[in-house]
Amino acid sequence: MFGIAKSIAAAALVAALAFTSTAQAQEDPGPAAYDAALKGKRVILVPMAMGFDLAQGWATYIKREVEGFGGVFETRDPNWSAEAGAQAITEAISSSARPDVLVVHSPDLNSYAKILKKAQKAGIYVILIDNPANFAADAFIGSDWDRLGQLEAEAVIKGCGENSSKKIGLVQGDQVNASSLYQYAGIMKILDKHPDFKVVAKPDSNWDATTSRNVTTTMLQQHPDICGIIDFWDGDATGAAAAIRDAGKQDAIYLVTTGGGEKVDCDNLESGVFDAVVTTELHNQSRDINAIIKFLLQSGQPPGTSKTYIYTLEKATTKADLTPNSCWDLKALQSASK
Amino acid sequence: MGKGFSVLRADQERIVLIIAAVLFLAAAIFLPGFLEPSNLIAIIRSISVLGILAAGMAIVIIGRGIDLSAVAVMAMSVAWYLQMLGTRSPDWMALLYAVAAVLAIGLINGFLVAYADVPAIFVTLASGSFVFGFVRSQLINQDAIAVPPEHWIERLGRLRIEGIPSEVFIFFGITCIAFIFLRYTKWGRYVYYAGDNPVTARNSGIPVRPMLVLRYIISALTAFIAGLLTASSLLSINTRVVNSTLLYDIILVVVIGGIGLSGGKGSMRNVIVGALLIGIMLNVMTILDIPNIYQNLIKSTILLIAIIIDGLMNPRDEQTAQQGDI
Description:
The structure holds two protein chains of two kinds.
Chain A: H1 2-25, H2 29-38, E1 42-46, H3 53-68, E2 72-75, H4 82-94, E3 101-104, H5 113-121, E4 125-129, E5 139-142, H6 145-160, E6 167-171, H7 178-193, E7 198-201, H8 209-222, E8 228-231, H9 234-246, E9 254-259, H10 263-270, E10 276-279, H11 282-299, E11 308-311, E12 315-318, H12 330-336
Parallel strand pairs in A: 1-2, 1-3, 3-4, 4-5, 5-11, 6-7, 6-8, 8-9, 9-10
Antiparallel strand pairs in A: 10-12
Helix pairs in contact in A: 3-11, 4-5, 6-7, 8-9
Chain B: H1 12-30, H2 37-62, H3 70-87, H4 91-114, H5 120-139, E1 144-146, H6 152-158, E2 160-161, E3 164-165, H7 166-184, H8 186-196, H9 198-203, H10 208-234, E4 236-238, H11 246-256, H12 268-287, H13 292-313
Antiparallel strand pairs in B: 1-4, 2-3
């Protein structure tokens, strides 16, 4: 009797053990597939230069993620030279340690188009960031510059107000960079809807602060009653701000610009150097870049198949709506990921 | 150097002065607001930094050399100085380091040209790239370095005397000192002799080589001052300026003012005239809202014409020309 009971109990125990062990073996197939697709993959970031806030921010976020999934992350620093950038991309395509994904920040609409096509043919996914180009990348992630220009124009119209001279000056970047061309188009779209606001001058800064200062000085000289200025990049808008300060018109002129949203932007808003900044939400933008990298590497599709646009949500920030989270701090970000 | 019909010979400085005057008059008549005192001050101010750099370059060129490292020295020395302020050293220490580095670069440039006999164009091209690369990669972490609030550089930028920015006075101060140095000191005259005919100068007992070193040191120091002034007005220094056309603009000012690239002639007057023409031209083009690419086109065309005129008026002296001369 006991014998039977014992063996039943033992059988039950064995069954129970067997059951639990099959429960343990029930594995989620996701992580293995994820690992298989991503591990050891090489991602190279080629920004216009590594020396400015956005590039260093992207690099920090992408590095963290890529190394997190066991991949290899590298950057190239063309230092604002389109030739050096093209060289870096060509070298990456033909090297033995060929990247699986190229993340490229194009200096203009056309320079890289041909080599990037070559990269796709060689089996490399190409992601364009920040600056659009005449090339069908696997994905574009960045600002909708047209929309960004509209936001700037709306900010300057609001900043000038109804009782102002309604004269606006633009300090453009140049005439080749997509961010400058599309920004201008966006600004003009809004100004067309407000025909009483007029652009009285629109010089180029060539992205240089000294030039921005000089052209803004001349602009203020010719049109002393300007109520607002849009400078196309925070990197040179310090020059426009200096010209406004020299003319003693900090209170009379509403200065709008756009930038990476690094701490320096918020500092400049706080101190009244800038009145409104349309900032790039670096954190969200970098997350989009990382998600697309992970998607493409798992998709199994040949490079050049998808043509996705992912625009970062942006808004104009003024001193009034500054919060501690309005900007990101490059130093803190870099030391956090060390 | 004497040419026969010197009465008829319109020298380049005079031509440029006339062009500048015509341009000025035309702008004064046709462009409203051009003649306002504040616009005239703005013109001079916009060329102050350029003018200071050109003054340093002129001294080197008169001595039959060229300093292509000027812009790199200007941007990188000040960027490093500002970077040091943000990190560790007290102000005077940081300034001392920066000045010492600037002197060292001038010294190395001069030494390589004078004693190692390497053509100036190659030495300074290489040292400029080295300075940029080394400082950018080892000593600073951003393209643009900001001036700390309430720093003396910021106060210098705010300084106005009778409403005229301090840069304008510093520009004239430096050109005056350079003028006195070149015109009235023995050492200044040596610069012309060495530039005109280095071998003869050396044979007649002039310390040609130490003088050469001195010129590159002067050029590096004026570049540092120009950098400090740039930082004072923009409250930051952006090292991207090294990749800009500034270096060509400096040479443009020097050449257009009538200082021959083959050395031995010219004075600070040429620098001021050249800088004024460029200043007026840029101001007029900006008022007319001419896009940057066309501005560059116009500027480069003028440089080309100036170099051709320079070549016709100051032909290479076959007796003294050397390989590597510009």
